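STRUCTURE REQUEST FORM
Protein name: Regulator of sigma D
Source organism: Celerinatantimonas diazotrophica
Requested output: structure tokens
Priority: standard
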Amino acid sequence: MLKRVAQAQQRWGGASQVIDNWLAERSQLIVEYCQLVGQKQPKSMQKLPQLEQIQHFCHHLVDYVSTGHFGVFDQIIEDCQDYRRVHGYIQQLAPTTEIIVDFYDKYVEVSDLSELNEFIDTLGIIGESLENRFAIEDKLLAELYQHVVAEQAQTNP
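Status: completed
Returned output:
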């Protein structure tokens, strides 16, 4: 996942400060996710991440998704001419958004490790959702990039 975000930053970095910040947040989110996954030990609940770390990850996860939906995607919709394709990609994100919001609701207020019985399995589902989400988001960024290139070609014949 980190390799893909680095490629996205190389490809689309500099197009917009909002997108640059969003991609940096994506990178940090992946690091936090990997830290949580790296601490899991399926045979023992003793090595689960600290509750504060889980709560922080939940907040960061929802902040990232919100920035996409209410910042980056709005910019892409505004800038791109092929609204149907862009809107189709955004609709494809709905299942991942739902999974992320459910994860947030379940674990953001967790106060006791005994509430984390399903945490390890759920964390795996979040990883798959993020992987799918990032692939779709990259398609949206590619749409924006294609629009920018076409616009530049029209102004610089």
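Reviewer notes: The domain at 1-154 is CATH 1.20.120.1370 (Four Helix Bundle (Hemerythrin (Met), subunit A)). The first helix runs from residue 2 to 12.
Form closed.
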